[in-house]
Amino acid sequence: MKVEYEEQKDNRINSRRSFVKEYLIVFAVVLWCCSGSVLIFNAQMQQNADPWFMVLIGSSYVLFIGVVVYVGIKILIRSSFTKPIHEIRKVARKVAEGDFTVRVHSQRKDDKKDEVEILIDDFNKMIEELASIETLKGDFITNISHEIKTPLAVIQNYASVMKKESLPIDKRMEYTDTILVASKKLSTLVTTVLKLNKLDNQEIIKKNTYSLDEQLRCSILALEEKFEEKDVMLDVELDEVMITTDENLMEMVWNNLLTNSIKFTESKGTVRIKLKKENGKIIVSISDTGCGMSKKTVEHVFDRFYQGDTSHSSIGNGLGLSLVKRIIDLVEGKINVDSECGKGTEFTVILTEN
C-alpha cells in the first residue's frame, strides 16, 4: 500500500528565494561569459591568429570563468547552507554530551525567516524539549525515591518496635495495621509506576465495541461503599452510548476520576456524572462540590507526583491523573479541567465516536 504525505505549508517562512531573481542572475552570468567569448574570438579573427592559439586563449578564458563561477557558488553555498549546518553540527555534538544550555544562533541579520532559519528555530526548540525531559526524568527519580522511602521507613520503624516482647497486644495490633497500610501504599505505588511505564511504551491499543454508559454505572457501583462512607450524594445522567476503544484502559480512567471526586468532596457534598453525545463527540463530565484547585494546581494537575492539596497526600501519590492523561492520549481523546478554590472541580473527557 502506498501512503502519500502532503507537506504542510509553514507560515513562519517569510523570506523565499525569488525564481525571477535567480533566473536573472544566471542569465547575467551566462550573457557575460558568452559576450566575453565572442569578443575574444572576434579579436583573434581580426588578427588572423593561429587556430591552436585561439583554442588556447578560449580554454584559458573558460578556465578563468569556471574558477570565478565556482568561487561564487562556493561562497553562496557556504553562507546559505554550509555555515549553518556546521553550527548545528557543533551544537548537536554538545547536546549529545549532555549540555542542554547551548543554542544555534540565527544566521541572518535582517530577522527574516527562510527554510534554514526555521530549521534552526526547530532545532533550538528540540533542545528545550530535551532539557525539559531531562529535568522531568531527574524529578521523577527524586520523587519516586521519596515516595518509596517513606512507607519503607514506616514499615522498618514499626517492625522494630514490634520485636519488643513487652509491647501490649493492642499496640501490637495497631502497629500491624500501620505496617499493612504502609505496605499497601507501597504496593499501589509500584503497581501504578509499572502501569505508567507500560503505557509510556505502548502505542497500540486493543479496541472493542461496548456500552460506555454501562461501564460508568459499573464503576460507580464498585465505589458505592466509598460514596456511602463519606455520605456523598450522586447525580447521574447517562445517555445510551456505544463506543469502540480499549475497555480496560477506560475503566482505569473512570475509577481514577471518580475516586478523586470522592477524595476531595466533603461529607454531604455532591458528585455529578454526565454522559452525552454531541456533534459526533462523546462527552463525559465528572464534577464535584469539593475544595477545588488553585490556578497553579490546575496547570500541573497531570504532572507526575504533583499533589496540590497536601492535606490528602497520605492517601495518594500524585500518579493517578498522570495515568489518566496518558490513557486519554493513547485513545486520541482530550481531557479538560475546570476548577476553582472552594467551588469544586470538573473533569471533562472528550472522545471521538467511532
Automatic annotation (TrEMBL):
Its EC number is 2.7.13.3. One of its GO terms (cellular component) is plasma membrane. It is found in: Membrane. Signal peptide: none annotated. Residues 79-135 form the HAMP domain. It catalyses: ATP + protein L-histidine = ADP + protein N-phospho-L-histidine. InterPro entries: HAMP_dom, HATPase_dom, His_kinase_dom, HisK_dim/P_dom, HssS/ArlS-like. The keyword Transferase applies. It is a multi-pass membrane protein. Its main location: membrane. Member of the two-component regulatory system HssS/HssR involved in intracellular heme homeostasis and tempering of staphylococcal virulence. HssS functions as a heme sensor histidine kinase which is autophosphorylated at a histidine residue and transfers its phosphate group to an aspartate residue of HssR. HssR/HssS activates the expression of hrtAB, an efflux pump, in response to extracellular heme, hemin, hemoglobin or blood. This is Heme sensor protein HssS.
